[in-house]
């Protein structure tokens, strides 16, 4: 009798060694895995069912979560990713995720990334299209919470804006379509409004620059520890983007927006 199990390797984001087995996803576990599994259970219990269901560990000690069916944008990103609808959906989904983390027990939590003050919520820390699932061009899921840790809402929102407004210099690399003029500043305002917080544009941009500098340092440290060599190229891009974004902080603000935070 053949007990072999078909494993389909999944690509995307910055993860490796992630496989799909039927309706489940298996990935290398770490000291933070029990915390992430508890976090997934907590936010799902709070009504945030767009994240995977935690299913423990397999016989090889790998983490198991449910598979979220749908499309994960590759690179270059598809043209539909830059629609106003997707932008607003992303802001609302991140807000729901943050709100669902309220009350999560942190006393015995182990995080892969350090907490950032003020630790208002549990941040995803890599909320971006490559960690999102879409169905028929609509946002339907958020996954890969391995780097989650306590932090300020604006820091998570800022990185999402970096990837989906977008402010990243590689956002349209390799694209063969023409979507016309894209105004990241205007899209940042739309994203912030969808999130529903009173963040000033300058506050989000400043958080974005800071997040990118931290990410550059983290990428270089991983490269130094025998990580993928291309991480050094990523770090250089993050630093250059951070400098460019920091120069935008002084741009005029839009009038105050209502908030329900």
UniProtKB/TrEMBL annotation:
<feature type="domain" description="Aminoglycoside phosphotransferase">
    <location>
        <begin position="110"/>
        <end position="172"/>
    </location>
</feature>
<dbReference type="InterPro" id="IPR002575">
    <property type="entry name" value="Aminoglycoside_PTrfase"/>
</dbReference>
<dbReference type="InterPro" id="IPR011009">
    <property type="entry name" value="Kinase-like_dom_sf"/>
</dbReference>
<dbReference type="Pfam" id="PF01636">
    <property type="entry name" value="APH"/>
</dbReference>
<protein>
    <submittedName>
        <fullName>Phosphotransferase enzyme family protein</fullName>
    </submittedName>
</protein>
């Amino acid at each position: 009798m053949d007990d072999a199990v078909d494993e389909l390797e999944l690509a995307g984001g910055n993860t490796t060694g992630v496989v799909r087995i039927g309706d489940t996803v298996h990935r290398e576990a770490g000291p933070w895995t029990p915390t992430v599994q508890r976090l997934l259970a907590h936010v799902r219990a709070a009504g945030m069912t767009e994240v995977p269901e935690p299913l423990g560990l397999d016989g090889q000690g790998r983490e198991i979560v449910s598979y979220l069916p749908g499309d994960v944008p590759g690179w270059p990103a598809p043209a539909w990713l830059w629609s106003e609808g997707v932008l607003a959906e992303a802001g609302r989904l991140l807000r729901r995720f943050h709100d669902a983390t309220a009350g999560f027990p942190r006393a015995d939590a182990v995080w892969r990334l350090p907490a950032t003050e003020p630790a208002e919520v549990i941040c995803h820390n890599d909320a971006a299209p490559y960690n999102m699932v879409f169905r028929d061009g609509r946002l339907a899921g958020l996954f890969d919470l391995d780097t989650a840790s306590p932090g300020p809402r604006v820091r998570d929102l800022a990185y999402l804006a970096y990837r989906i407004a977008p402010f990243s210099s590689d956002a349209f690399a390799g694209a063969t379509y023409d979507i016309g003029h894209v105004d990241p500043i205007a899209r940042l305002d739309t994203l912030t409004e969808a999130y529903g917080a009173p963040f000033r544009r300058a506050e989000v941009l400043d958080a974005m620059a800071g997040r990118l500098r931290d990410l550059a340092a983290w990428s270089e440290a991983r490269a130094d520890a025998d990580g993928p060599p291309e991480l050094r190229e990523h770090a250089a891009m993050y630093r250059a983007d951070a400098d460019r974004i920091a120069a935008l902080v002084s741009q005029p603000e839009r009038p105050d927006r209502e908030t329900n935070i």
